[in-house]
Design goal:
Length: about 325
């Protein structure tokens, strides 16, 4: 992407050293890669550690979770966030990339295609299923992303991966365009979903437009436009637009450690059960990640109960990831 696009949004207030650690809900504009957005946020907030969770294609718009500071250490723990999209499927055309950026490979008449037939075809894709990732994707084979092979004119045999379409609806129909709303699991390619629906209908299809309207707890109506991102201490004033470390991991059970044990936690040492009390009633096993907090509510680490052969189960909480002081 040319540097001019990155310069479209003028710099605003520069961040203070109190830039929060966590996940910023950013509204990605069309024509920007996810990497472009990360670079722009890094410049606007003057933060060294910035990343993202959940890539959006360049022409797609909508929610892009941007990780700030120690939030960059959360990406592996946020991969299970579900997603919602509004997508426009254009029937009658297949493209090389399964979206509007590719070359048209096949044109097919949609004359005689009935609305009830389209509704029935779309409904077939609700539920658990196997999806073959597109060649133009970042999925790696042999250590190389598929898109590199695609750009070299190669088509590789890809293995299907399990995904779940929790719900899919036809929201509007103005043929050849069909507007879909999709609630899906991680790893779902909406481009491929559109192409597959087109194949079921026998006329082909591709993704014409895409907006991501939610990622986990981050909704589109609370996303920050790039031009409005300014001082870091302003971020926390917009509920749903920024999650601190603890809020981003709120789906995990939590425990609080005795103040005398905080130093041990920050050093990554295990803590005995006697120095811990639970904050909620959610069940946790030796496989469950647990938020470890101090008595002021600050997230210190993620831990797991250690297996024990003693009469008292869950004898120690072992640290998996230490975040340290963030406030």
């Amino acid at each position: 992407m040319m540097a001019g696009i990155l310069d479209e949004i003028p710099p605003v207030h520069r961040v203070t050293p109190a830039t929060p650690h966590g996940v910023l809900n950013v509204l990605k504009p069309a024509g920007w890669t996810s990497h472009d957005v990360v670079a722009k946020v890094r410049g606007l907030l003057q933060v060294r550690k910035v990343g993202h969770a959940g890539t959006l294609d360049p022409e797609a718009t909508g929610v892009l979770p941007v990780l700030l500071g120690q939030g960059t250490r959360l990406s592996a723990f946020l991969v299970h966030w579900d997603k919602e999209y509004e997508a426009v499927l254009r029937l009658g055309q297949e493209t090389t990339t399964q979206d509007a950026t590719g070359e048209i490979m096949r044109d097919c008449s949609i004359q005689g295609l009935r609305p009830e037939t389209i509704h029935a075809a779309v409904a077939q894709f609700q539920g658990e299923q196997q999806q073959v990732p597109p060649m133009y994707s970042a999925v790696k084979m042999g250590g190389q992303p598929l898109y590199k092979a695609a750009r070299a004119g190669k088509i590789l045999d890809r293995q299907a991966r399990p995904i779940t379409i929790y719900r899919i609806e036809v929201r509007a129909m103005a043929l050849p365009d069909v507007t879909l709303w999709v609630h899906c699991s991680k790893g779902t390619y909406i481009r491929t979903l559109c192409a597959d629906i087109g194949q079921v209908l026998g006329v082909g299809g591709h993704l014409s437009q895409l907006t991501r309207v939610r990622v986990g707890p981050l909704p589109l109506d609370r996303a920050w436009p790039l031009g409005e991102i300014g001082r870091g201490d302003d971020l926390v004033k917009n509920p749903g637009a920024f999650l601190d470390l603890d809020e981003a991991l709120a789906h995990l059970p939590a425990v609080t450690v005795d103040p005398a044990m905080v130093g041990k936690v920050l050093n990554g040492s295990p803590v005995s059960g006697a120095a811990i009390w639970s904050e909620d009633d959610r069940e946790s096993s030796t496989e469950t990640l647990i938020r470890v907090k101090d008595d002021r509510g600050r997230l210190l680490a993620l831990g797991k109960w250690a297996s024990s052969t003693l009469d008292v189960p869950r004898q120690q909480l072992q640290m998996v990831k230490v975040f340290g002081e963030t406030s």
